[in-house]
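ok, trying the design again with the full structure, not the truncated one.
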């Protein structure tokens, strides 16, 4: 965990546990439903496995996470102390939406976007059977350009390689444009009208696609009315 501040203040003592690099983002993933090591890695694609293991050990030692095993299945589950961090994570996210400026190109990651989208699918809106959504990101290097979601009325899977089924709909998009939709900075209507996102496939599926995703929980967070509102 973080180094000691040598203060009796409860804020200082809490930060000694939580201000290690990646720690709060691991907590974010745990509060979002990730429990297994590989699930956590999908939500934190730039975090090394070694550091993830170390941080999980530290969170377990601190009583924030409980490690549960069932044969070869290992899960990391928030304890009561960990669950109490959920409103703190949500408050930090809301503050970031309202007061942190434009995101940089280095902040854009198609793996993270698709992972977040897959856990915010409205399965009641997805067609019966299996629907493959192919994502082609026009503004990222070729090696990272293609991604797939496989949706059913009960499950959603992220695929970094072609799953071998024909896509029901293809999303040709600027990664930045789709991230802005996901964050609530733009709407599907905005980006489709502006041409930064294009849906290809049968008309019924094209029209339905935006309804399959419920967007980030922070997308509805109110923003300051103007840039001057940040002053």
């Amino acid at each position: 965990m973080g180094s000691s501040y040598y203060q009796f203040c409860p804020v200082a003592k809490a930060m000694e546990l939580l201000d290690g690099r990646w720690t709060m983002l691991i907590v974010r993933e745990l509060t979002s439903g990730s429990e297994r090591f590989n699930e956590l890695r999908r939500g934190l694609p730039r975090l090394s496995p070694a550091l993830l293991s170390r941080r999980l050990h530290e969170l377990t030692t601190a009583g924030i996470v409980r490690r549960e095993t069932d044969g070869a299945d290992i899960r990391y589950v928030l304890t009561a102390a960990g669950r109490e961090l959920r409103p703190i994570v949500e408050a930090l996210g809301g503050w970031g939406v309202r007061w942190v400026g434009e995101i940089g190109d280095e902040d854009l990651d198609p793996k993270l976007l698709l992972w977040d989208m897959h856990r915010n699918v409205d399965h009641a809106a997805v067609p019966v059977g299996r629907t493959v959504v192919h994502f082609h990101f026009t503004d990222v290097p070729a090696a990272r350009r293609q991604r797939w979601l496989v949706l059913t009325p009960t499950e959603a899977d992220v695929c970094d390689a072609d799953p071998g089924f024909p896509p029901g709909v293809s999303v040709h998009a600027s990664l930045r444009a789709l991230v802005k939709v996901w964050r609530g900075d733009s709407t599907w209507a905005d980006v489709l009208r502006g041409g930064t996102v294009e849906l290809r496939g049968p008309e019924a599926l094209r029209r339905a696609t935006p309804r399959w995703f419920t967007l980030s929980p922070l997308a509805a967070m109110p923003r300051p009315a103007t840039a001057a509102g940040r002053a």
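Keeping the full-length input from now on. The chain is about 40% helix and 15% strand.
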